[in-house]
Amino acid sequence: MASTLIHSVRLFDGNSTISQNGCILLKNGLISNILLMTPSPLPAAETVIDGTGHTVLPGLIDAHVHAHDGEPELKQALGFGVTTVLDMFNEPGHVQSLKALVKNRLDLADFRSSCHAATIEGGWPAPVLLATLDREIATEKIKAWPKLASPSEAEAFVLSNIEKGADYIKLMQESRSVMLGEPIPVPSPELQAAVVTAAHKHGLVTLAHALSQRETILALEAGVDGLAHCFCDEPPSQELVAAYKRNNSFLIPTLVVAASVTGEENESSEQHAEHHLSEKLLGEEGKSCFCKKLMMGRPACRVEYSYQAVKLLKENGMDIVAGTDTATGLAGTAFGLSFHQELSLYVGRCGFTPAEALSSATSVTARRFNLHDRGRLAEGLKADLLLVKGDPTDDIRCTMNITGVWRGGQALIRGAN
Ligand SMILES: [Zn+2]
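A: This is the predicted complex of the input protein with zinc ion.
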């Protein structure tokens, strides 16, 4: 595979800026060399890119998506610099075919999935399917989901999910107290704890879906490693902080979807949709879906409560792992673009420095999901990179000024000045 050298460039390594005038050499799909000063003469490479005025950063990782269509979504994500997506509920057959596809297609974002979550009869997310799909198709799909009835079934569920290709285990703590609609059954605390124990026994990370503060705390009491959403139903409490601290759990905020649920942040959505990169990568339909809002929250819900919770947890040293809950056709989201909006909300609303937001988008995620081959600029890691004009550690909006994207050393977009 070709070698590529990017020189005279600022390097953000996933934690901090390590050079204002460095160079990075990509070879055989990996980062083969990083120099903190660009030497003269330049190291030899087949492709040489002058990165003056630009920044190289690790490829972005969206830690919460649902790639229901697959190929077009992974292509769009990569165009926006998202080199890896972590899917948080999908059909095992679809997961297997997407995993096979991304192995050889470096023009698509890499893909990981939880496959099915630890679902129960009548529980979340069945109402989502019944509300959005043809009833017959929805019923057919739901029929194939796990229906855990007792803690003794947890081990078998985890094993079968691993066999089907699950990279981590997702739990559902959802009684529908926040979203409009009738209450639905929730797994018992004993069942949730048994699923977490079984997953940990097999070395897998566990995450829970929860949309209220009360259910978030219940999931944390079951021992989950992370939450797949931030709640928006009330201001964060000290009890919440204590529950996160007890397990050293992380949070995937999915603020873009919280804002869609409550119908807020319209101006931010419009600004992102108007960016020239969105013009290039999203069709009219995609842009209009991105600017729509779900408006499904109960009247007391405020995205401001989510901002307060993210801010409080970060101040208390908890890991914030950037993720959006983007799904095709989900109002308020678009693959790739939503991730940039999510980061801008961390900086604009939750008191993050741009560098902290970028760490949440790269190295923190890699560490929490055991993706040890990516998420940082380091020799020997995958050459999943982003080249942007300007300094995103100074202005987070620069993450959208993309002039180069590489996955596994292969350029999707390449250039600089
Ligand atoms: Zn989700």
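DSSP finds 16 helices and 16 strands in the chain. The first helix runs from residue 71 to 79.
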